[in-house]
Amino acid sequence: MKLVLASNNPGKLAELQALFAPLGVELVRQAELGIPEAPEPHHTFIENALAKARHAAQVSGLPALADDAGLCVEAFGGQPGVDTAYYATRFGYEKGDTNNVRALLEQMQGVSDRRAALVSTLVALRSADDPEPLVATGRAPGLITQAPVGEQGFGFDPVMFLPEFGQTFAQLPPAVKNAHSHRGKAAQQMLELMRTRWFAQP
Fold this sequence. Notes:
Layout: E1 2-5, H1 10-20, E2 26-29, H2 45-60, E3 64-73, H3 97-107, E4 115-125, E5 134-144, E6 160-162, E7 167-168, H4 174-180, H5 182-197
Parallel strand pairs: 1-2, 1-3
Antiparallel strand pairs: 3-4, 4-5, 5-6, 6-7
Helix pairs in contact: 1-5, 4-5
């Protein structure tokens, strides 16, 4: 089965492709099909993921999978949330992972509450008009470090410390990260939903 991934992020594609391989699902980035990115005007992950999935399914005529994810920092009332990708631009930096990390660490100077969570919401649709989208959410709580640590991953992985591992996401091997990340947890839920709802034998 071929699914359009409503994202052009190569890191997301690599992670999700590995996770969905057992179902025989092939993910194709929307850019490869000439599909422009959908507007994301909403304030919640689920609303944005649904909007992206509907857009990709509508334009492609194929089933679609969308992921909306971000960092929710306790001391900031859950922000940056859905605006995570553009976080650095709030502070005069260009958009990008490195600048996002820099801006976050600057804003958290002197903040003692370092609790945060990476959150991912996945939405899958059989068609743009599917009245029963599959929805899965994963959450990976941790602590924001004082400085980046580790070379793996992308996004906020170098500053997201996981107490149960005693390491940041950027220090974990990809297979371990995929099993315990917000996106990994959401993808495992989505796999089970797809198995029982889309691929179940009559």
